[in-house]
Write a structure and sequence with these properties.
- Belongs to the FAD-dependent oxidoreductase 2 family. FRD/SDH subfamily.
- It is found in: Membrane.
- Keywords: Electron transport, FAD, Flavoprotein, Membrane, Oxidoreductase, Transport.
- With about 675 residues, this protein is α/β, with parallel strands linked by helices.
- Among the domains are: about 110 residues, Succinate dehydrogenase/fumarate reductase flavoprotein, catalytic domain (Flavocytochrome C3, Chain A, domain 1, Alpha-Beta Complex), CATH 3.90.700.10; about 100 residues, Methane Monooxygenase Hydroxylase, Chain G, domain 1.
- It contains 21 helices and 23 strands.
- The strands form six sheets. Strands 1, 2, 6, 7, 8, 9, 17 and 18 form an eight-stranded mixed beta sheet that branches. A five-stranded antiparallel beta sheet has the order 12-11-15-14-13.
- Helix 1 runs parallel beside helix 13 and helix 7 crosses helix 20.
- The longest helix has 25 residues.
- The radius of gyration is 25 Å and the shape is globular.
Length: about 675
């Protein structure tokens, strides 16, 4: 679905159509400011852009629940949820943000229900709730049922409900459009619009906007084994970096403990809340050794490290599909869950195991291992979703630019996210950002009465002597598309050029290795003996191969544990090989329309840009906290690192203090 008419100026462009983007659209349209504007005859011009059909957004794969202190099953208090969120994030959480999250969680869930989300029910008809890792009663004393759920398909319910409400409210979508550029003014203090590529026609569009909200999801495809769908390539985060802004806390990548070996497919935390138990090769339930009070429902980073520790002690098991392979998994024992209850509460998990593992969890143990799941860091935002730049100890708001959901960082998750808080973050702060946009676009643009929204802004821009930066960026992107197509590797001249360039990069990596600096090409490129045989392969380098090799390199560098050597090794390979290969990629087809490889090339470039920032932020933090465990700095260091890393593409890492209100840092145990 493409818009029938592309406006000269939009009041708001929302990039991304998952829970955060759709919540922002509804928050905007339902706000009192827009209702008043409509009563005065002004209709906002809004466009939601998605590189997927919205109902394919990754929100639909969320399984276990959305956290809220509804108290439908047992007494709960939002203050307890607030405490658990701060503790779960290892005290890197901004406590003002965590208060908002916990206090408005019940309202958010109830509004989702009223919008059509069909939650599972208690016997008396209330929204059902289940236990989730790290959620407790009475400030950590005992696990509590806080996660509202819909069997194990809550994301599907929420996504469909939000999308249907957007359709009912007349939201205009541009589906399967890829945003290639975020355009700011020359001082990087205000947004001007975006550039988007229509994959159906091959057209590049210059889209001017008063406000832009990025809700593009996470970056799980940085890693080879991940629960994330193929489209989560960190696009919004990379666009912000390319525009000259910063990302916050990018060293914190959550590995979910229970990914189905070795596919990475998520097996929800709900399994353990319903009675599933993790066991090692001896059949021992080992989590009591690591988290005596919470066991299998400790925070995810704690459980993931425990699994890795069991494997390193020689207590891992192989994937039954590869019995002679590495013993890098442990067992998930679901045999204690009654089959009927399993079918009712965990139907998707049951289907996944049967389909992809050929096992029956009612009688078979299931092999699992940690898998990249969630990006805690992202685009730094205020409580109202405003993007800012940290400079000289202050937050400088980028006027008109907003973000929400996993691509953003309001710092409500800190160093580790609790289960159930992701959907809540996306819906709650997405809604808040939408309401903030509504207030902004209905403000008078001059001091003379109410603006007619877009029209007044167009006139203001026409009187501005500055260059039309959006159109300039669009022309530059059109030239990039033509270059990617005209220098297609189907051309013999182009193939010769790519061969010489790619071989030079491989030789550089090999020379670095010979000199004692470790490089990390993939197995197909890491031997001098194979360099001649790989010449033909180099001709056909493609973004999919590069992204696969990048995922393997990042996994070796950062998965669950890391140290200075693993980080440096990955940075060397990224600098000497991957980044230049990403820039040298060309399309194998000469048509722009329906050319999936064009999109993949941009995604590969986004991932290499992001990988550098993730590695540099990880290298800069000389401590272990939350999901970041450094074997060379094993302790948390509040004296030096109770702060958020702020990392731009070509600048040193800066540090922003954490917002501490009423919960000073404590020891974090489960």
């Amino acid at each position: 679905m493409s818009p029938e008419h592309v406006e000269e100026m939009y009041d708001a462009i929302i990039v991304g159509a998952g829970a955060a983007g759709l919540s922002a659209a509804l928050g905007l349209l339902r706000s009192p400011a827009i209702q008043t504007a409509r009563e005065n005859g002004a209709e906002p011009k809004i466009l939601v852009i998605s590189k997927l059909q919205p109902l394919r957004s990754h929100t639909g794969s969320a399984e276990g629940g959305i956290a809220a202190s509804l108290g439908n099953v047992e007494h709960d208090d939002w203050h307890w949820h607030y405490y658990d969120t701060v503790k779960g994030g290892d005290w890197l959480v901004d406590q003002d943000a965590a208060q908002v999250l916990a206090q408005y969680a019940p309202e958010t869930v109830i509004n989702l229900e009223r919008s059509g989300a069909a939650f599972s029910r208690t016997a008396d008809g209330h929204i059902a709730q289940r236990r989730f890792g790290g959620h407790t009663a009475d400030f950590g004393h005992a696990p509590i049922r806080r996660a509202a759920y819909s069997a194990d398909r809550v994301g599907h319910q929420i996504l469909f409900a939000l999308w249907q409400q957007c359709v009912a409210n007349g939201v205009e979508f541009a589906e399967e459009w890829v945003v290639t550029d975020l355009v700011l003014n020359e001082s990087k203090g205000a947004v001007r619009g975006i550039v988007a590529f229509d994959t159906h026609t091959g057209d590049v569009h210059a889209l001017h906007a008063r406000t832009v909200l990025l809700a593009t999801g996470g970056a799980g495809r940085l890693f080879h084994t991940t629960t994330n769908s193929w489209d989560l390539t960190g696009d919004g985060m990379a666009l912000v970096l390319e525009a000259g802004l910063q990302l916050e806390d990018m060293e914190f990548i959550q590995f979910h403990p229970t990914g189905l070996a070795h596919s990475g497919i998520l097996l929800s935390e709900a399994v353990r809340s319903e009675g599933g138990v993790l066991r090692n090769a001896r059949g021992e339930a080992f989590m009591q050794h690591y988290a005596p009070e919470h066991g299998d429902l400790a925070a995810r980073d704690v459980v993931s490290r425990a699994i890795i520790d069991q494997v390193e002690q020689g207590l891992g098991v192989p994937d039954p599909k590869d019995p002679d392979g590495p013993h890098d998994c442990v067992w998930l024992d679901m045999t204690g869950i009654p089959t009927e209850h399993m079918q009712q509460s965990l139907p998707q998990v049951l289907e996944t195991i049967r389909t992809y593992a050929d096992l029956d969890p009612s009688r078979d143990y299931v092999p699992i291992k940690p898998t990249a799941h969630y990006t805690m860091g992202g685009i730094p935002i205020s409580l109202d979703g405003e993007v800012y730049r940290w400079h000289e100890g202050t937050r400088g708001i980028v006027q008109g630019l907003y973000a929400a959901g996993e691509c953003s960082c309001v710092s409500v998750h800190g160093a580790n996210r609790l289960g159930g808080n992701s959907l809540l973050d996306a819906c709650l702060f997405g809604n808040r950002a939408g309401a903030a946009i509504a207030r902004k676009i209905t403000q008078p643009i001059t001091g003379e009465g109410d603006a007619a929204i877009s029209d007044a802004f167009v006139n203001a821009e026409a009187n501005n002597a500055n260059e039309d930066l959006v159109s300039v960026s669009a022309e530059r992107r059109r030239a990039d598309v033509q270059q990617l197509l005209s220098q297609s590797v189907n051309s013999s001249d182009s193939r010769d050029g790519l061969l010489s360039g790619h071989n030079a990069e491989i030789n550089t990596a090999n020379e670095a290795t010979d000199a004692g600096t470790t490089a990390m090409p993939s197995d197909s490129h890491d031997s001098d003996d194979n360099s001649t045989n790989n010449s033909a392969d180099n001709l056909d380098d493609n973004p999919y191969e590069l992204m696969s090799e990048l995922g393997e390199a990042m996994e070796r560098a950062l998965a669950v544990r890391c140290d200075a050597h693993s980080i440096a090794t990955a940075r060397t390979w990224l600098r000497n090989v991957a980044s230049s290969r990403a820039q040298a990629l060309r399309s194998h087809a000469s048509a722009a329309a329906f050319n999936q490889e064009l999109t993949a090339i941009w995604e590969a470039r986004h991932l290499t840009t992001l990988a550098d920032v993730v590695l540099r932020a990880s290298d800069a933090r000389h401590e272990s906290r939350g999901s970041l465990y450094r074997t060379d700095f094993t302790e948390r260091d509040d004296e030096h690192y109770l702060a958020h890393s702020m990392t731009a593409a070509d600048e040193d890492v800066l540090w922003q203090p954490v917002h501490i209100l009423d919960m000073p840092p404590q020891a974090r145990t489960y």
